[in-house]
Amino acid sequence: MHLREVPDMKNNNQHTISLLVNNKPGVLIRIALVFARRGYNIDSLVVSPANDSSFSRMTITATGEVKTLEQIIKQLNKVVDVIHATDHTDDVVVERELVLIKLSIQPEQRSEVLQVTDHFKCQSVDISKDTLTIESTGSTEKIDALVTMMQDYSIMEVVRTGKVLMSRGLTAT
Amino acid sequence: MTTNTMTGAQAIIESLQMQGVEYIFGYPGGANMPIFDALLDSPIQLVLTRHEQGATHMADGYARATGKAGVALVTSGPGATNAITGLLTAHMDSAPMIVLCGQTITPNLGMDAFQEADVSGISFAVVKHSYLLKDVEDVPRVCKEALHIAESGRPGPVLIDIPKDISSAQFTPDFSVDMDLPGYVIPEKAYSADVQAIADLLQDAKKPVLLIGQGAIISNATRAIKILAEKMQIPVVTTLLGKGAFPERHDLSLGMLGMHGTPYANFAVKDCDLIMSIGSRWDDRIIGNPNTFCKDAKKIHVDIDLAEKNKMIKVDVFAHGDARLVIEELNTLIRPGDTAKWVKECQRNKKKYPLKYRKQGGLKAEFVLDVLDNLLEEDAIITTDVGQHQMWAAQFLKTSNPRNWISSGGAGTMGFGFPSAIGAQLGAPGRQTLTVVGDGGFQMTMCEMSTAMLQKTPVKILILDNKYLGMVRQWQDLFFEKRYAGVDMEGNPDFIKLANSFGMKSFRIRRNADVERVLKEALEYNDGPCLIWAEVEKEDNVYPMIPSGLDYSEMLLERPKEKMDAPPGST
Predict the structure, then answer these.
(1) Structural domain of residue A25, as residue ranges?
(2) In whole angstroms, what is the distance from residue B80 CA to residue B74 CA?
(3) N or C: which end of chain B has fewer CB within 10 A?
(4) Whether residue A107 is found in the same domain as residue A157
(5) B216-271, pLDDT tens digit by residue?
(6) Domain stop point among A26, A58, A87
(7) Do A83 and B306 touch (CB under 8 A)?
């Protein structure tokens, strides 16, 4: 099973970009092309309708050179369907990610695992004879730490939502 | 507001007509038949082309000659894919254009229907914006938005994909509908602090240069720029597409800069202590080596597109706004500095290093163009194809007015010259229109000779025929040890017979002594299109040349004595 590598957060070439875009067909591909054309890899992408459902919110994390990213942000803002695109890399923001982890586990290991998950304030969302599925919400760093801890047990699947964020206080995202 | 019921196709045509569209350049097919049908009852004139690529270049030429969007109409599938080159050409050169594509009916979308192509998917990277019409009620809004987006800000092509059931559907259009473009903002004035910063830098500069691009033409900034240059006594260089933004016969004009720019323009750029770009994007043909370009000079950039800021080179001041508004504001702040010595130096270089070519020997393309320059009317429209002839034309044909010079710069699209001249001529009727083409590029779109004949468009086609793909041959000559591969145009037609078969008037230039007489005769012929076939020296190279990616100090004024390494830049 291939597990995602824990990103090195000291290496500041991962960026988080938030976008407000028209909620229309084809918008996603216009945005993805801006990244792909410049060889930028999108690590995670979250799209959902905004408060006003004629718009969508997107949060994209991507890895690459800072200079290329500046160009990407400007090019994103040029896309007619993009209301605005902002790089939040060094901003003070509330950021969250949700993870579901399914473990292959025998009944005798359960309490040990639940102790660890308790520490991470996880919820168990599904239990069967051979499996335990837990859910956790938090910063990307916290989720990375949880996934690392769970490597000691037999992980069957990990599904992460990818990061969403919101600016603090009166600042608009 | 109208309460008439009509089809989607009729609403498209009516909407375009209400917004001032005069011509549609098109080619029919199954999927766009309703739109062709609607054109029969419209004052908009259909120009039936012979290929969709020609239709897009005609729309492009019309757009560049008038400043208004040119409109092409193609069918689905191969019709649409044939328009892609034209979209790229317009996109790279910021030309306003609308491409209407027929499409299969909506229930068939994605079902691999006959002549279905996902043209939206194929074209995303070469359009400013695009629409797939899924609801006929959207027609009036989409047509309005498409023209607005194509023509405003930094212009570009907009594609509208129109399924046949939508163009056939009956509805009652509301043409008064508002546009809905919350993400589309057109920059106007720049920050005053940036404009003031420019004024300060200009005043301190001893050796300033203005670098004018097509953005200056698009924003109608040319009058303001002339005032700026004259008041501040600053020499002016232009990009290929900026030709005409500043009168090239003006004392302060140094002509085109860059890879094949004039020696004196390039010397000025090499030695300046300040360079100010107005509506140019510091293209790689212009900056050569981005690490050494104007290394010690202050750099100023005025552009409507924020994405051009620091894209190619880092600048000291970037003024984000419409060039005309920025320069008009700047002109209220400037105080002349001391540039008299510098202007003299530039003018000395102009005399010392003129554009030159060998006068003896066989017929030279440069000679033909040099003579032509003296015969053309002041406001003649010149279009070119792509290659050596394009560079020679840019050097030798002096352009006095905006929108008089039309050439494919960014995309370098062979086959552009002739059809763009047809479009330009229709957009500027009564004006002398001549296209300079090579034997290679002309053959890519020469099927449009029928179109020109049919429209009786008095376009003059000057073929500078060296029986080679000359620019590639020049590179093979200089950097590939003269190993000529795939550049010999053996098999070229007899262009006179070709013209005659279309019923087109033709002229032939064989010798130096023919040039002036034949060109005069051709320029006086106005009963329709004509073709001038000039067979020129086969292995002539374009100089000056700054091999791609190299510094301005490495400009070649003539053939290098020693063998050169392949240059580091691209093409």
Answers:
(1) 14-87
(2) 6
(3) N
(4) yes
(5) 999 999 999 999 999 999 999 999 999 999 999 999 999 999 999 999 999 999 99
(6) A87
(7) no
